[in-house]
Write a structure and sequence with these properties.
- The model has no long low-confidence stretch (mean pLDDT 81).
- The chain contains 16 helices and no strands.
- The chain is mainly α and 434 residues long.
- It has one domain (19-433).
- It has helices at 2-16, 19-71, 74-88, 91-128, 134-159, 163-169, 172-187, 194-219, 231-262, 265-301, 305-332, 334-339, 349-365, 368-374, 378-403, 405-433.
Length: 434
């Protein structure tokens, strides 16, 4: 009887709070993807060394930042508009925003990729006195198109209501293929450099995006005639979101580049490995963003502020529970965790502790940035992002030259703390006045 009663209560709670079981399911899928991504990074670090890890990290972050520029915030605008339109029954508007955003962003991706390929290495050398090998610059340039294509596909699929399917394609399947292929190279002792690792990673992301577009086409098959969207208004709304998202990307990218400028690519590899470990904690936050984002947008569209408060409270409590085991490991046993990658990575133990504390701030803050974006507060988000970039820039030129990898970790965590503290104040005022 107690078991039956417990199951009945669980079913009733799940029925009354559908976002919780969906979030847990999404987290489970994301956790699989993170485990595979972690395995991929582990194989690169363990068998190819810190130098290859550092070069791959610089290539990956460069391509990601470039694709974020190409997207111009349209993926977030697409998700927000689609979620509200689908809930309101306006499927023509949902289909129209997907088409318009895809058309604009893909043209921008081609242009950004060409500019990166032609002048990226020279620009990096001039700005931060560090560059990638020319072949890695070209890989990053070519990758801009598939990465942009992938983000649009995942956002369209998620906006259509297929959240779990989008979550499955947004990492797990691509990483499974990447791990299998890289494992084959390592087992057969076939030489593979940073260029090959990068090509493998981006190639699998491209295949995943094709699957996502196919599923979206099936989901939208019975929708209404696409509503036309003018390019000008979309770009006017999108640039603010683009700046907000880009500011988050720049935190990782500029810290890595600054560390490489003052130290070496090996130090970049050490830091990237520590960051990759704590990104498993950040995974909890990003997973809940993907689930709560559409729900917040839909609730805001019908004026349900109380529902938004409930969603955010539940998300924080669940995120804290799910992230606790890894937080304990990284804060108390950082040498053991890093030692799994190889003895040369143990020197990053203090940095790992600092990065873990920064991610704890992220967990406690919840999905504050997503709430601002999904409720139409691009202006406030852009202002806060600019403030965060200024803080990051000051910390980069003061802490990293003085303390190296420790300074890089401090820069990352202090910027996260500053950003979330300001976000908290603004969101509280936003929801309190609605």
């Amino acid at each position: 009887m107690p078991v039956r009663q417990s199951l009945a209560r669980a079913r009733a709670y799940a029925s009354a709070n559908p976002n919780v079981p969906e979030a847990v399911a999404a987290f489970a899928i994301k956790l699989i993807g993170a485990g595979l991504s972690f395995g991929f990074s582990f194989m690169v670090a363990r068998f190819l060394g810190a130098a290859v890890t550092g070069r791959f990290a610089l290539t990956l972050t460069t391509a990601t930042v470039a694709s974020t520029v190409a997207l111009f915030g349209l993926d977030y605008l697409l998700l927000r508009t689609m979620a509200g339109s689908v809930r309101a029954g306006d499927t023509g508007s949902a289909r129209g925003i997907s088409r318009a955003a895809t058309r604009i962003a893909m043209a921008a991706a081609i242009l950004v990729g060409l500019l990166l390929g032609l002048g990226g290495d020279a620009l990096l050398n001039r700005l931060l006195h560090i560059g990638l090998a020319q072949d890695l610059v070209l890989v990053a340039a070519v990758a801009v198109l598939p990465v942009t294509f992938n983000r649009l596909a995942i956002s369209s699929l998620r906006g259509s209501g297929r959240v779990l399917a989008a979550q499955l394609l947004d990492g797990p399947l691509a990483m499974l293929m990447s791990v299998a292929i890289l494992g084959g190279f390592l087992i057969s002792r076939t030489p593979i450099a940073a260029t090959g690792v990068s090509l493998l990673y981006f190639g699998m992301a491209a295949l995943s995006s094709l699957a996502a577009w196919w599923l979206y086409a099936r989901a939208a098959r019975g929708w209404g005639t696409p509503t036309p969207f003018a390019t000008g208004p979309l770009l006017h709304q999108g640039w603010k979101i683009s700046f907000i998202v880009l500011s988050r990307m720049l935190l990782d990218w500029i810290v890595l580049l600054s560390l490489g400028a003052y130290e070496s690519v090996t130090e970049v590899g050490h830091f990237r490995t520590a960051w990759q470990i704590t990104s498993l904690i950040a995974l909890v936050v990003t997973t809940f963003d993907t689930v709560t984002g559409p729900r917040v947008a839909a609730a805001w569209a019908v004026g349900r502020v109380d529902e938004i408060r409930k969603i955010t409270r539940q998300a924080i409590m669940t995120m804290l529970v799910l992230s606790s085991p890894l937080l304990v490991l990284t804060l108390i046993f950082p040498e053991f965790v890093l030692g799994l990658f190889g003895a040369e990575f143990v020197v990053a133990a203090p940095a790992l502790r600092i990065l873990a504390l920064g991610q704890l701030c992220n967990v406690l803050a919840g999905s504050l940035g997503s709430v601002l974006l999904m409720t139409g507060e691009e202006k406030w988000s852009a202002r806060l992002s600019l403030a965060g970039l200024i803080v990051m820039a000051v910390l980069c030129v003061t802490l990293i030259p003085a303390y190296g990898i420790i300074g890089a970790a401090l820069t990352t965590s202090l910027t996260i703390l500053f950003r979330n503290a300001i976000y908290y104040v603004v969101v509280q005022r936003k929801l309190g006045s609605a």
